[in-house]
# Entry
Amino acid sequence: MTLPERAPLSQACAGEPFYLPGGNEVAVFERCHARGLAVMLKGPTGCGKTRFVEHMAWKLERPLITVACHDDLSASDLIGRFLIRHDGTVWQDGPLTRAVRQGAICYLDEVVEARQDTVVVLHALTDHRQLLPIDKTGELLVASPGFQLVISYNPGYQRMLKDLKPSTRQRFVAMNLDFPGEEQEAMIVQRESGADAPTSRALVALAHRLRALRDRGLTEVPSTRLLIAAGALCADGIPVREACLAAIVAPLSDDEALAEAMQDLVSGMFV
# Structure
């Protein structure tokens, strides 16, 4: 497989977001969009869920509106609110309302972080009606053609603390994404970070060994995103061992025993 060259950041943002499919997720997403079906992306942190949505929005030629969900996210944050200005009170659409009006793809990242009463406002948009009632203005919006609702979450650590209600989960077509295979992940790291091929393969090999520590108390395992960060440091001249400690080991855990075990793995691979 030929590795495409990495474009400068300004060009990359304007062009096709780089994504290597790991299965039939592109075809499934295209069919869901054509049918107006809402999509739920499930996968570990940093496995490429957001990049996949960016790629599909580009491929389908639809605007993309992304919301990073959090504990304090309210329904008003999504739908909109009245603002007081010097010349009076005006209504300002929230990101979900803008997506409905524009026929955009609305991507709610890590949706389980949002409050349950906030998630409920999505229900009317996930069936054949595709309606968004705005109580504060009395409007009942019908989604413009091309609108699609996409949510994502990490079924690993998040499910231990929070989860979606069954009544919400069953409104979405679920797609499972995971870390790429070793060869594919090495290609991604090389292209996105600028590291050379041997370094990229070594970083992926380290990640696979560290991911085996999941059953030993490591809540989050090294993501492709962390490998790209480490590769970028290596490409800029930082020794690979120091890059791995700073960009992979340190962000994963503050537990002394786990950190020491990961440091030993790094030292064993990169002397």
Remarks:
- The CA atoms of residues 151 and 236 lie 35 Å apart.
- The radius of gyration is 21 Å.
